[in-house]
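Researcher: I need the complex structure. Ligand is NAP. Inputs:
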Amino acid sequence: MAASRLRLENRVALVTGASRGIGKAIALAFAEEGAAVAVNYAANRRLAEEVCEAIASAGGRALCVQADVGVAEQVDSMVSQVIQEYGRIDILVNNAGLLNQEPSLEATGEGFDRMVDVNIKGVIRCAAAVAEGMKQRGRGRIINVSSIAALGTSMPGVTGYAMTKAAVNMFNRRLARELGPHNITVNAIAPGFILTDMSREGARASGTYVDGIADRTMLRRVGEPADIAGVALFLASDDSSFMTGQVLTVDGGRIDYLTHSV
Ligand SMILES: NC(=O)c1ccc[n+]([C@@H]2O[C@H](COP(=O)([O-])OP(=O)(O)OC[C@H]3O[C@@H](n4cnc5c(N)ncnc54)[C@H](OP(=O)(O)O)[C@@H]3O)[C@@H](O)[C@H]2O)c1
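Model: Output:
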């Protein structure tokens, strides 16, 4: 039997929003499987450094890179820094995202504009910044973190957010078609309720009872960031080579999704 290889050996990954929550879990999982990981953050430098230190102390390679993905110049500078350090980017995880809650008919103001900038345009900017290099090498993986909110299930007050994630799903499909001939796969993950700062704050602000979500979930629990990291690892690895344009729902089996009720 051949000696087992790490699943992301000799790969370079950029994970946006990796200072905490889902992005952090993805960065740690990728590093454990041998990838050199660029850990992006917007404001929490200390937390991002802790992620990089955890990777380095386990014998891996990591680089902290600041960038607000809502700002084009910062995305370009982030990608340049990663390429300068590691030579290329093989895997992009568009995970950075933001949730502003407001009633549906108020989703026209600054809160919505900011979500469009980060959740939609940030995803497009980061993909654009890495795609050319991937095309030249004839290989690449782009993973977009969407949400079950885009599929119809969510807490109250997240119409604007849900619309931005629905846009991500459509971008995911369109981009997969354009990049497929270059052997670049583009897939999305639509997480359900995953315990992070974002979901805790969202549940608090909307008066959502977290145990109630677990009751409406087939597996009878809410998710942990590691539940998403495992699926991201699959999408980044050779195991998913013949999959593209897909949105994988990872929500523990939400029953309220099946009935389209909130
Ligand atoms: N948690 C859930 O239940 C859930 C469900 C469905 C989908 N999602 C999606 O999963 C992704 C991660 O969510 P999470 O729950 O892990 O969120 P989180 O705990 O709030 O963490 C957000 C991460 O994104 C970074 N970030 C925020 N705005 C950014 C920007 N403009 N530019 C660069 N980085 C930025 C943050 O960096 P700083 O630490 O520097 O602020 C942090 O690392 C998001 O796209 C979210 O929409 C989450």
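Model: Summary of the prediction. The two ends are 50 Å apart (CA to CA).
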